[in-house]
């Protein structure tokens, strides 16, 4: 098994004709996807379409049943998945932290890939300064010493993105990062993501959502999933059409893009 640090110059992610079968059911069927550096993908689909399942493959948390997946140039099944995962930033809104850690310490746990600080592990001055820079980047400067237990959901979301960025990943996976946020918190999060992408032109991201309104302007590509199959894949303006989204959600909708952002509204039945 390879234990080399990911350094490939090819695609950041590649899935080829992937099937994932559980209990005799296809959770994913014949899904292919290639993500290059600097691309920002949206993974859209209704409840149960397979979005989180696909994200767990792309984050090296599951193996495919058929087909193959390459993460940072390393083929799943031929690489130490645990080691590979340390090079992938994964933002999971169900982060299990329950203790009153300060924001900066939460962000620093990104380096140890743990929920709580590792006993007797001390960050270097450089690592602390990197954490502070990320906290500033995500607009949390005034909350740096605030405790996790009193943070709003939006502040937690941004702290988790900073945490995921600590190991300087080339790939960031975001699972429904705007869920439960109020309007202002969602807009702040999306602005932070646009800014982060601008500041890190090499970074690739994959963001899962049900809602087109939750897509940052900087989204470049989209994959629409329906019942475990890719219904459309490619540049965002080719994929997010009224026809495709109507098929994906099995409901007539009209899509509009205004000043870079998307909105969907139901077509009135006549
Ligand atoms: N381990 C498993 N065994 C059997 N079925 C599973 C397993 N994990 C997920 N599923 C099923 O696979 C389907 C896809 O689940 P997944 O969580 O990927 O969907 P999703 O698109 O993320 O949905 P949501 O938007 O509701 O979060 C669902 O019908 C789910 O019940």
From TrEMBL:
InterPro entries, per database record: AAA+_ATPase, ABC_transporter-like_ATP-bd, ABC_transpr_CbiO/EcfA_su, P-loop_NTPase
Keyword annotations of the record: ATP-binding, Nucleotide-binding, Transport
Keyword Amino-acid biosynthesis among UniProt keywords: no
Nucleotide-binding listed as a keyword: yes
A GO term for molecular function: ATP hydrolysis activity
Gene Ontology CC: membrane
Residue ranges annotated for the ABC transporter domain, each copy included: 13-252
Record-linked PANTHER family: SKFA PEPTIDE EXPORT ATP-BINDING PROTEIN SKFE (PTHR43158:SF2)
Protein name: ATP-binding cassette domain-containing protein
UniProt organism field: Amycolatopsis acidicola
UniProt lineage: Bacteria, Bacillati, Actinomycetota, Actinomycetes, Pseudonocardiales
């Amino acid at each position: 098994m390879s234990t080399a640090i990911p350094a490939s110059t090819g695609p950041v992610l590649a899935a080829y004709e992937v099937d994932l079968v559980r209990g005799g059911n296809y959770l994913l069927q014949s899904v292919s996807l290639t993500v290059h550096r600097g691309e920002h993908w949206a993974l859209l689909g209704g409840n149960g379409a397979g979005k989180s399942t696909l994200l767990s493959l792309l984050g090296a948390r599951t193996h495919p049943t058929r087909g193959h997946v390459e993460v940072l140039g390393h083929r799943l099944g031929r690489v130490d998945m645990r080691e590979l995962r340390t090079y992938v930033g994964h933002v999971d809104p169900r982060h299990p932290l329950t203790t009153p850690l300060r924001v900066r310490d939460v962000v620093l746990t990104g380096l140890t890939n743990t929920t709580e600080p590792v006993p007797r592990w001390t960050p270097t001055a450089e690592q602390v300064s990197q954490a502070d820079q990320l906290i500033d980047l995500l607009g949390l400067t005034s909350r740096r010493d605030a405790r996790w237990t009193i943070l709003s959901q939006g502040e937690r979301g941004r702290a988790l993105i900073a945490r995921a960025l600590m190991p300087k990943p080339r790939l960031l996976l975001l699972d429904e990062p705007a869920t439960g946020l109020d309007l202002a918190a969602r807009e702040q999060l999306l602005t932070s993501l646009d800014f982060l992408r601008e500041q890190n032109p090499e970074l690739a991201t994959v963001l899962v959502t049900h809602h087109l309104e939750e897509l940052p302007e900087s989204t470049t590509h989209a994959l629409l999933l329906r019942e475990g199959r890719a219904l459309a894949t490619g540049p965002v303006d080719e994929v997010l059409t009224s026809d495709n989204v109507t098929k994906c959600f099995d409901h007539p909708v009209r899509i509009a893009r205004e000043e870079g952002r998307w909105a969907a509204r139901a077509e009135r039945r006549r």
